[in-house]
């Protein structure tokens, strides 16, 4: 499988090579290549999983540094060589202890770039950053055009090779058009020196200081020894230069000893040698590889018409210093056009383009493959040329879904098509994905509107216009996508076995294919050559049946195209029965079978000895269900590993590139297996129709076991396909903060970290979001476990990513007990995607049913649908003790020992609803929870208290009172009663407060109101009047009189103002009225205990003049007051009021009745008459 990665360019540098523009210019083919660091396979190295790839086009070289572990900043540059064309394969990258050196060859010059090595940029052994600087970060500061780093060539070379000597010299081996090899040597970059040239000839050695004399002038060497491909390899203190010439000969040069070997490659050609000698081998290729087992090997590709040939030759050295070549292997290739090939210690990898301009990648083990059968590499096919649009589908939405679906079109192709479609009037740089989608929609719709000349036309005509214009834009995107997909080269990292396919616009990563996917995707000629398959588990008969069954599936797949495929897809989307949809597709196939394809499938199916066993083997391989639970503890770092190992593992496969690689692989696996399950389901229904050939037991097994299993797997893989193509929604920071608060209420994991350094043109899918935040930690934990020394020393291996894909698929598999993916979506506020996930799995998934209802409730809460959320929370409650995710919501083990798990669950949900601010829902759920807490008095008290609180907050006074009366905890009941009194008083809802019956709570209410009355300011609160009304309402007149008398007495002591005297008079009058309403023998009250008197009006009796607490009052003897005593107090207060009305300052004077009488006789109150 191949995965696409596109990287935008950060820096562009224009270089002048010091030459003028040649007349007419030179157009050389585009090329590409790659370089991997020596320690890229070492976990603890800063260059682990790190490489550089480059591409050339005309005068431009684009270099990109990538890492699978960390995101690299400023990692892409573009170098433009004015008036030059970069030689195909003319970029050579080498590393030294301190530097990364890039050697570039154009048709007129050579150049050297010296960059710092990553180990010198980060000298610390522990690098904890999520982002790191690339080696290209400071390339703009380099003196690239310095004479010491470049050299002008008088003639254009045909091929090149380059290397760095141990002393730092940069050597360029060039193939001049007159034959031979010329080596241009630049001095070490940190030393002074001059450029030197060495011309390698079989007859002589010429060393010059500048330029070389054309060989044709000297009359030496015929052009038949023109090298069409060069390679160089340093061994010990010498360097060997391999030159594959157009006379079909391989010449090996020693940089010290001149030509050491000439081999005629036609000797390895079995037939047609005489004809080939007359044709120059201009398309021959050469690659060199060194391994500890085979030594230095050379692989030569002989471009023989209609039968390309690869020869792997081993360079052998004898004791007398002579060299020879030993033919290890000869492999013949197909008739496609070779683009590039690569040699490893065991394999030959080839890249071709077939007659339909489709990319073909194959590889072969040249040591052990005696049959000469190349292994297939399944390259992702290009997007379909035509889009099927159903009658019920909107053309615009359909085309947009295809254009902006992951794995189909790169953003660069869409942007270029948009610019052409808009006739180049605008430039789109770093446009966000959603904005680009809007721009495309606007451009196509505007084009459609401008072409309409009629004001009115039918809906069908408008639909046809939409299809016409959208298909036009789609065709433009197809052209640019095809251009960007042009293959240029292969890059293989020998240390990690990573294989990359370098294309014109992006990079494709090749991952090992799983056995069942390999069988389904293989062409018939490869299937016929298979003798056994891992799916059959060593059973040869079963293996043969499986292979024939897969051939039947391929035949079914060829029939299910276009509208039938769309109908099956639509049935899955609408949650219709897959079995019924497969039957309808089969009926359609039978009705339209004009080529007898069904008969061919039936005949092929009858050749299978045990079809049900073969179907069962395929289903077992496809089923990813496991009993293993993956909870949050699996993401924790192992405790036994050292710090540097833990840090390295925390970064392993964590970059944006690695995230895209793994998740695109998941998408491709899901796509492939969904098609396989679809075809198998149709084939199973076809097998049921065979009649007499199917026994009753087989029919029963099919209907009760195999067909339901296949239907279930089809739904699972369809779900995975949808998830891997669903984009994650961007979430504002305030929403993330609110979500973090909600998760803290539930005591779940926190919100996700933001993805750094992600291009706006590469939107993130929900599967990538999950892998980045949760899945990768589980994968790394399972790959390395508790290993420490082994993890540090064992090399990183690219096929590990295959294990990562399997692990990630297992985490996403809906039938597994783990619940990490939905929990991650909830934690990252992907509520719309979460609702779609639960909708898709609802009819057929029986795992984590309660957990799914809970997270669906969370999604409804986020969208403001509280009642739906409450319904989901209630539906999840019965599964609390059965599912791991819900068990984690029930709190600590200590609480679980004393409280029922379901009650703990309800408490968490109630806290969540309170945090969101939905008191009505809190009341509903708490009322429901009461039925679960019948025997738990503590929980009952807490629930009734919660119900009381929210009823009171909502103004439901009657319901709040009823709730507090149901509370079994006396202390909580008293607290609620106190709160009820205070709140209703503050709201001035005294009518409700007075009229409540207060059964068995009468004394408590009176005590609460009395304590409040005696504790607050008399002039701002009316608790005494409330208590008076309370007693009057209950016809307790003596109590009412006592309250008003106490109120009047306190007014006299504490409020010595005119207004205070007025209120005091009214209080005494009310007290008199109360006592007169009862029989005389009961018309008495107990005189309230007076508080400390204040010598200043309006001051608190509780504190002294200095503000200190006053001493506690001395207890006094109880005194009974009768009606006449109250009348005296009333008369006295009335007199004081009259006096104060005449002379306001007298209101503040305290004293006895006699003192007040003397004050009334004062001359300043009643002045003497003046005689006339």
Question: Care to describe what's here?
Answer:
- This protein is an alpha+beta fold and 1172 residues long.
- 43% of the residues lie in helices and 18% in strands.
- It has a 5-stranded mixed sheet, with no helix packed on it. Strands 13-14-15-16-17 form a 5-stranded antiparallel sheet, with no helix packed on it.
- It starts with a strand and ends in a 12-residue tail after the last helix.
Could you tell me how far the N terminus lies from the C terminus, measured between alpha carbons in angstroms? 129 Å
Mean pLDDT: 83
Number of helices: 39
Radius of gyration: 45 Å
Enumerate the spans where pLDDT stays under 50 for 5 or more consecutive residues: 203-221, 753-757, 1092-1097
Our estimate of the beta-strand percent is 15-25%
Can you tell me the overall shape?
A: elongated
User: How many strands, which pairing sense, and closed or not: the largest β-sheet?
Assistant: 5 strands, mixed
- The helix content is 40-55%
Q: What structural class do the secondary elements suggest?
A: alpha+beta
Question: How many strand segments?
Answer: 34
Strand order of the largest sheet: 2-7-5-4-3
Quick overview:
One of its GO terms (molecular function) is structural constituent of nuclear pore. The protein has 1172 residues and is of the alpha+beta class.
List keywords for this structure.
single chain; 1172 residues; alpha+beta; 5-stranded mixed β-sheet; 5-stranded antiparallel β-sheet; 39 helices; 43% helix; 18% strand; elongated
Helix and strand arrangement:
Elements: E1 2-5, E2 11-16, E3 31-36, E4 50-57, E5 60-67, E6 71-73, E7 76-82, E8 86-95, E9 99-106, E10 109-116, H1 118-121, E11 131-133, E12 150-152, E13 160-164, E14 170-174, E15 181-186, E16 196-200, E17 205-208, H2 215-218, E18 227-235, E19 238-245, E20 249-254, E21 258-264, H3 273-277, E22 285-291, E23 295-302, E24 309-317, E25 323-332, E26 337-343, E27 347-353, E28 359-365, E29 375-377, H4 395-403, H5 411-421, H6 433-451, H7 459-484, E30 487-493, E31 498-503, E32 507-510, H8 515-521, H9 524-529, H10 540-559, H11 563-573, H12 578-591, H13 597-606, H14 611-622, H15 643-651, H16 656-688, H17 696-725, H18 733-746, H19 766-784, H20 789-793, H21 800-812, H22 820-827, H23 831-841, H24 849-862, H25 866-876, H26 884-888, H27 893-898, H28 901-916, H29 919-930, H30 937-954, H31 957-966, H32 970-986, H33 990-995, H34 1002-1015, H35 1023-1033, H36 1037-1054, H37 1058-1076, E33 1084-1086, E34 1120-1122, H38 1123-1142, H39 1153-1160
Parallel strand pairs: 2-7, 6-11
Antiparallel strand pairs: 1-32, 3-4, 4-5, 5-7, 8-9, 9-10, 10-12, 13-14, 14-15, 15-16, 16-17, 18-19, 19-20, 20-21, 22-23, 23-24, 24-25, 26-27, 27-28, 28-29, 30-31, 31-32, 33-34
Helix pairs in contact: 4-7, 5-6, 5-7, 6-7, 10-13, 10-14, 10-16, 11-12, 12-16, 14-17, 16-17, 16-19, 16-21, 17-23, 18-28, 19-21, 19-22, 23-24, 24-25, 28-29, 29-30, 30-31, 30-32, 31-32, 32-34, 34-35, 35-36, 36-37, 37-38, 38-39
């Amino acid at each position: 499988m191949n995965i696409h990665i596109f990287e935008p360019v950060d820096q562009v540098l224009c270089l002048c090579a010091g030459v003028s523009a040649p007349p007419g210019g030179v157009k050389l083919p585009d090329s590409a290549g790659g370089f991997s660091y020596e320690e890229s396979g070492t976990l603890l190295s800063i260059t682990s999983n790190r490489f550089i790839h480059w591409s050339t086009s005309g005068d431009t070289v684009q270099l990109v540094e990538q890492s699978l572990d960390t995101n690299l900043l400023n990692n892409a540059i573009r170098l433009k060589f004015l008036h030059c064309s970069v030689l195909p394969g003319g970029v050579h990258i080498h590393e030294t202890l301190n530097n990364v050196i890039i050697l570039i060859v154009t048709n007129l010059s050579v150049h050297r770039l010296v960059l710092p090595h990553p180990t010198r940029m980060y000298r610390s052994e522990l690098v904890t950053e999520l982002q790191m600087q690339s080696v290209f970060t400071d390339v703009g500061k380099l003196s690239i055009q310095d004479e010491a780093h470049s050299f002008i060539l008088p003639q254009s070379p045909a091929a090149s090779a380059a290397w760095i000597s141990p002393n730092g010299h940069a050597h360029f081996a060039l193939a001049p058009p007159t034959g031979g090899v010329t080596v241009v040597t630049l001095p070490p970059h940190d030393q002074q020196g001059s450029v030197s040239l060495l011309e390698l000839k079989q007859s002589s050695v010429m060393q010059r200081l500048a330029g070389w004399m054309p060989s044709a002038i000297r009359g030496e060497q015929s052009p038949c020894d023109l090298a069409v491909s060069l390679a160089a390899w340093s061994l010990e203190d010498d360097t060997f230069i391999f030159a594959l010439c157009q006379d079909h000969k391989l010449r090996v040069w020693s940089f010290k000893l001149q030509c050491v070997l000439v081999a005629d490659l036609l000797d390895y050609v079995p037939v047609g040698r005489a004809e080939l000698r007359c044709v120059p081998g201009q398309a021959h290729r050469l690659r060199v590889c060194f391994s500890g087992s085979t030594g230095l090997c050379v692989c030569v590709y002989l471009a023989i018409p209609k039968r390309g040939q690869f020869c792997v030759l081993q360079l052998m050295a004898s004791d007398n210093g002579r060299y020879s070549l030993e033919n290890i292997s000869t492999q013949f290739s197909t008739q496609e056009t070779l683009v590039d090939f690569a040699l490893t210690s065991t394999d030959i990898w080839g890249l071709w383009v077939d007659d339909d301009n489709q990319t073909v990648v194959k590889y072969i083990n040249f040591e052990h493959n005696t049959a000469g059968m190349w292994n297939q590499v399944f390259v992702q096919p290009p997007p379909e040329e035509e889009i099927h649009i159903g009658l019920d589908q909107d053309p615009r939405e359909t085309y947009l879904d295809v254009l902006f679906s992951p794995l189909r079109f790169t953003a660069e192709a869409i942007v270029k098509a948009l610019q052409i479609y808009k006739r180049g009037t605008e430039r789109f740089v770093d446009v966000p994905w959603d904005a680009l989608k809007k721009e495309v929609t606007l451009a196509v719709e505007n084009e459609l509107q401008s072409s309409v000349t009629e004001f009115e036309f039918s809906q069908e005509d408008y639909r046809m216009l939409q299809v016409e214009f959208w298909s036009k834009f789609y065709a433009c995107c197809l052209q640019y996508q095809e251009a960007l997909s042009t293959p240029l080269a292969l890059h293989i990292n020998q240390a990690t076995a990573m294989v990359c396919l370098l294309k014109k616009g992006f990079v494709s990563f090749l991952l090992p294919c799983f056995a069942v996917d390999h069988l389904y995707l293989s062409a018939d000629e490869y299937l016929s050559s298979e003798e056994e398959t891992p799916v059959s588990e060593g059973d040869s008969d079963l293996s043969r049946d499986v292979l024939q069954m897969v051939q039947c599936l391929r035949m079914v797949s060829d029939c299910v195209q276009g509208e039938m495929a769309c109908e099956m897809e639509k049935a899955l989307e609408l949650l219709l029965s897959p079995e019924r949809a497969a039957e309808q597709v089969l009926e359609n196939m039978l009705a339209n079978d004009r080529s007898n394809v069904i008969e061919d499938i039936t005949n092929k199916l009858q050749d299978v000895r045990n079809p049900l066993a073969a179907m069962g083997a395929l289903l077992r391989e496809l089923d990813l269900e496991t009993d293993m639970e993956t909870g949050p503890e699996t993401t924790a770092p192992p405790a036994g590993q050292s710090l540097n190992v833990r840090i390295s593992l925390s970064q392993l496969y964590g970059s944006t590139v690695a995230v895209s690689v793994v998740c695109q692989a998941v998408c491709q696996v899901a796509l492939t297996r969904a098609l396989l399950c679809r075809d198998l389901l149709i084939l199973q229904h076809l097998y049921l129709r065979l009649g007499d050939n199917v026994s009753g037991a087989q029919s029963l097994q099919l209907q009760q076991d195999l067909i339901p299993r296949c239907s279930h797997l089809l739904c699972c893989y369809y779900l995975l396909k949808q998830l891997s193509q669903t984009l994650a929604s961007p979430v504002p920071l305030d929403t993330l903060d609110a979500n973090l608060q909600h998760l803290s209420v539930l005591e779940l994991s926190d919100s996700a970290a933001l993805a750094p350094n992600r291009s706006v043109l590469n939107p993130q899918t929900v599967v990538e979001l999950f892998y980045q935040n949760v899945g990768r930690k589980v994968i790394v934990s399972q790959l390395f476990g508790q290993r420490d020394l082994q993890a540090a020393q064992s090399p990183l291996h690219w096929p590990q990513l295959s294990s990562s894909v399997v692990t990630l698929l297992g985490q996403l598999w809906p039938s597994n007990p783990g619940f990490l993916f939905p929990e991650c979506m909830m934690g990252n506020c992907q509520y719309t995607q979460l609702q779609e996930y639960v909708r898709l799995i609802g009819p057929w998934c029986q795992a984590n049913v309660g957990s799914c209802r809970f997270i669906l409730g969370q999604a409804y809460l986020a969208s403001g649908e509280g009642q739906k959320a409450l319904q989901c929370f209630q539906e999840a409650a019965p599964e609390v003790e059965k599912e791991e995710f819900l068990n984690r919501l029930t709190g600590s083990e200590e609480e679980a020992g004393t409280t029922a798990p379901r009650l703990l669950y309800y408490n968490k949900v109630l806290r969540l609803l309170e945090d969101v601010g939905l008191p009505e829902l809190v009341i509903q759920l708490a009322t429901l929870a009461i039925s679960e807490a019948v025997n738990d008095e503590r929980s009952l008290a807490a629930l009734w208290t919660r119900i009381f609180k929210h009823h009171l907050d909502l103004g439901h006074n009657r319901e709040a009172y009823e709730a507090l009366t149901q509370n079994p905890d006396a202390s909580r009941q008293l607290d609620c009663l106190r709160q009820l009194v205070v709140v209703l008083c503050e709201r001035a809802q005294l009518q409700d407060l007075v009229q409540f019956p207060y059964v068995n709570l009468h004394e408590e209410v009176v005590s609460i109101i009395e304590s409040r009355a005696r504790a607050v300011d008399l002039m701002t609160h009316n608790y005494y009047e409330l208590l008076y009304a309370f007693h009057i309402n209950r016809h307790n007149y003596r109590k009412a009189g006592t309250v008003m008398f106490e109120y009047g007495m306190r007014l006299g002591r504490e409020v010595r103002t005119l207004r205070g005297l007025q209120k005091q008079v009214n209080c005494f009058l009310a007290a008199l009225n109360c006592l007169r309403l009862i029989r005389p023998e009961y018309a008495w009250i107990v005189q309230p205990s007076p508080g400390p008197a204040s010598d200043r009006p309006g001051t608190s009796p509780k504190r002294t003049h200095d503000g200190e607490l006053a001493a506690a009052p001395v207890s006094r003897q109880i005194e009974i007051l009768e009606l006449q005593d109250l009348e005296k107090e009333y008369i006295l207060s009335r007199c004081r009021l009259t006096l104060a009305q005449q002379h306001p300052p007298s209101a503040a004077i305290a004293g006895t009745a006699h003192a007040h009488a003397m004050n009334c006789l004062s001359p300043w109150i009643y002045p003497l008459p003046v005689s006339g």
